[in-house]
Amino acid sequence: EGAGKSTQARKLAASLKDHGYDVVLTREPGGSPLAEELRAVVVQGEADRMDALTELLIFTAARRDHIRTTIRPALDRGAIVICDRYLGSTNALQGAGGTPHETIDLLHETFCQLVPDLTVFLEMDPKASLDRAMSRLTQAEVAEGRFESKGSAFHMEVDRIFRHQCQTRNEWVSVAAAGTIDQVADRVLSTVLAHDSFPKNALARAV
Ligand code: TMP
After folding, report:
1. Average pLDDT of the residues in 104-120
2. pLDDT value at position 83?
3. How far apart are CA 100 and CA 111, in angstroms?
4. Are 114 and 69 in contact (CB under 8 A)?
5. Whose CA is nearest to atom 8 of ligand 1?
6. Please, what's the largest Cα pairwise distance for the chain?
7. Which residues pair with 24 in a beta bridge?
């Protein structure tokens, strides 16, 4: 949280496009017209405006539509899909909110299934992450502050679950988020290019 994910996702997409790849940059919640509407429902308003399971159902519905209409068609034509947040955020944020991981896994397996080849975890000091997330509340994103308003204990738990996923899941790789935007972007790009999942038939996939 607060590590510059969206900026880095954009930079990675631009670099891979420069290398000649067909790249689709997308985000969650959102990434399809219906899922963008669901985003507005789930990220705006008071922290307690819906219960945890309603929230999880909306994230899952948004993800299902996003996969069906945006991600799957892109993968099927051979594109590289870069998604700003995905299932790891559900595990961290809804998990920190008290939803059992079995419930999150069950909904994912039933309605979404798709798991990324690689998840890049931008690692930063948890206290700095909290400060960055909180500082966003004073800026234009105040209208989307439903999660940021949940308090520091919640944020520390989110951070713990992100780190736990990074330590326990094979497809997760940690990249240090310290340094300039360009330094981090270089690290992210080299991590992605070197990863086993990166398409080796690179030129065949290029458009
Ligand atoms: P963003 O600000 O990074 O676009 O994310 C919007 C908010 O949605 C953010 O506070 C994290 C939250 N979120 C979840 O709680 N669960 C999820 O599965 C996703 C994708 C996002």
Report:
1. 98
2. 98
3. 17
4. no
5. 43
6. 49
7. 81
Q: Which helix (H) or strand (E) holds 156?
A: helix 152-168
**Angle 33-43/52-66 helices, nearest 10 degrees?**
160
Residue found by looking up tokens 């790009």 in the block = 189
Could you write out the DSSP letters of every residue in 43-55?
HSS-TTSS-HHHH
Nearest-atom index, ligand 1, CA of 42: 8
Q: Whose CA is nearest to atom 10 of ligand 1?
A: 147
Name residue 123's beta-bridge partners.
176
Residue 145 per-residue DSSP state: -
Asked if residue 24 lies in contact with residue 52, where contact means CB atoms within 8 angstroms, the answer is: no
Residue 22: CA atoms inside 13 Å, Cβ hemisphere, count? Answer: 14
The tens digit of pLDDT for each residue in 45-70 reads 887 889 999 999 999 999 999 999 99
CB 13 within 8 Å of CB 55 = no
Mapping DSSP to helix (H, G, I), strand (E, B) and coil, where does residue 66 land?
Answer: helix
pTM: 0.91
For residues 161-188, give the mean pLDDT: 97
CB 28 near ligand 1, within 6 Å: yes
105's CB contacts (< 8 A; 6+ apart) are none
Q: Which of 65-69, 88-92, 150-154, 201-205 has the lowest mean pLDDT?
A: 201-205
**Amino acid in the structure at residue 115:** V
The answer to whether residues 29 and 43 touch, using CB atoms and an 8 Å cutoff, is: yes
Asked whether 35 lines ligand 1 (CB < 6 A), one says no
Q: Is 63 in the pocket of ligand 1 (CB under 6 A)?
A: no
